[in-house]
Amino acid sequence: MKRVLIFFLSLLLAFSLVACKSESSTSKATVSNNPSLSNLDLLQEFDKFKNKIDNISSISKKEKEIDKLIKRIGVGNFPLIQDNNIIFLYRAESKEKDIAFISDLSNWKKIKLEQLADTSLYYLHLKAPAGSRFDYKFMVDRELKNDPLNNNTIINGVFGLNSQVIMPKYHSQGYWKGDLEIKKGHLNKKIIGEIEVSIYLPADYEENPSKGYPVLYFLGGDKYLKYGDITNTLDKMTAKNKIDQVIGVFIDSKDLSSEDEITSHLIKRIIAYVDGEYSTLADANKRVLIGYDIFAELALDTILDDNGIVTSYLGQSPLLSEQSIKLLTDNPQENIRFYLHWGKFANEQQQINNFKMIKRLKEAGYQYKAEINLDGNDWGNWRENIAQGLEYILSDKHSANGVDSLAIKEDFAGQYPNYFEIENNESIVTEQGDGSYQITFKDSSFVKLSHYQFSSFNFESKLELLSDAPFALVFSGEQKYTLMIDSQQRLITIFGDGGEELYHKGIGDLIPMKSIKLIAKDNKLNIYLNNKGIAKVDFSTETGKYLSILGIKGTKVRLNNLSIEEEF
Fold it and tell me: Which of 82, 149, 262, 315 is the 20 to 30 A CA-CA neighbour of 358?
């Protein structure tokens, strides 16, 4: 036991030197335009089809069976969707060999398709939330292609036209879709200095000359008009009395500078022009600055630097820097209202910075609302979900803040996202099965939960120890705590920052261990094994930053789910 303790303490020292769902489904298929398949279990049927192909020796006969399958389902009715399961198919040409899938789901990293026997058919089985929507493409021998079997496409600002998947429980309000039965506003181009802007006026603007209107200023406005169908959204939300009538000002992306002072000066000039030429409510509280991606950060910086010219912010999937977040602290303006949203399928660092911003907003007492959509971070998300932002920011509501915790809930049923930092670590072998994530240590090492930072948190995981070798969870920051479980010695031990033993207890009756739950709150760490409370230990929750799993050669652990939530 002493040797094991010495090892873990030495491994912990090495660590401190480093920069510090399978659901058995019996439900039926979802195939968009083919009702004849609605009563089939598509997963089962596709498995039967694969077995059938494997048992055919003739290549030509295999290809004929593939022809029959595609004809039966119908071009335009792919991919195959059942609950949260998706099967993508790609029929390769004779010279096409390297077929991969890239998507919002994979953060646009490649996932290889598997070839069916030695045929021209490649396939990929993934899982996604049943209420989600996402873009995707195939990468075929380094060439990007849309799915030829899927007619459902969407314009994307980066890749042009993308294939998209809309899952069965996805809810769309569809404000961006045109409606011939409602009154439409008017869009005009105006020259302000050397800048051309587009200005949207509500349908009956001319009929109400004495009425004053709030004004929405769109940074990257040309893209909102081209990809976001924003005038349809404004027309329809107004007609349905979701928002008051507004004036929209669209500033082209080419005219915006990454220099905050230049953009700020430009916006002041445009505001002065609009207030002078149109019936606006010339009040900072009735002006909204709106942006997406990099323009959402530009909008934030402009509001914080402008000292009260605009006091409402709507950010869509903002790409925030530490400098922008710091402005919230250094230049507080309590009268500003914030709305921001982003897609769940964002990269980890983008999510971290968004959560940091929310934390600052909450600590400073700002009025805000934040939402995470089951979507990517592109125009499919932005055109659909800007409606919630407009409804909040243009109303007098000051209540619900929406997202106020960073939550990871993973059942390892899909291939996104990978929360563990394992790249280039030859000491670790990982295997993501159908509903589990297995980590095998070939040598002494650690696996860090990538990017996420925690202080007060709840941690819960169903796990299995598949070997007698000990493993440990490390919570590290300015202070460090190591919780080691040694199933061979039947002991749980907690070490403090300097390696001193803070707690140990025999857990003989709790082996084999099936689950672990840790609740860190109010400077106490509550430990539960197999749903049984075993300890409450003094624990500083203010300095925690990283969570890691440590193991030695032979340590093998399987996670069947993982849930971590940090409250702000």
Answer: 262
